[in-house]
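#lab-general

N.A. 3:47 PM
ok so I finally got the sequence cleaned up, no stray characters, all 155 residues accounted for. can someone with queue access submit it? mine expired

B.Y. 3:52 PM
send it over

N.A. 3:53 PM
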Amino acid sequence: MENAIRLYSSKKVQREILNSAKDREVGVKYGEKGYGKRPDILQFESDVYELARQGATSFHISVERWKDPLKLSAGMTKKQLDELRIGYDLLIDIDSDFLEYSRTCAGLIIEALKYNEIENIALKFSGRSGFHIGIPFEAFPEKINNQEARLLFPD
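B.Y. 4:20 PM
back already:
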């Protein structure tokens, strides 16, 4: 617990988490106790530290971006969600029992994305035997097959 408080007391860490959480739902995990209330957001850098002091061990930020994440509720229809959704980032999660296969796959996907002129690609080691490739919504065309790209989630 002390390690989490030390990490989340860093102003740089707080600032980066808050920047990532803009217009997104945030799931706050409290170790083995599970997640906090839903929906939740972060409004201030100090929220990160205060939640850590209350036992938060990690922050899980949605790929979807919302006009008002606090208006989310269980049982909403796709139409209701589409009305609130600003956009979404694409996250490709590559996992294999063999790290070298995951690394090769991630490399090939990134090459294909670059070949198709996709910019601002993020790559992160997932911590076990895989990689996460992230593509921000800004990299998408406004429309895909004459439909607004923001309405195509989760398809």
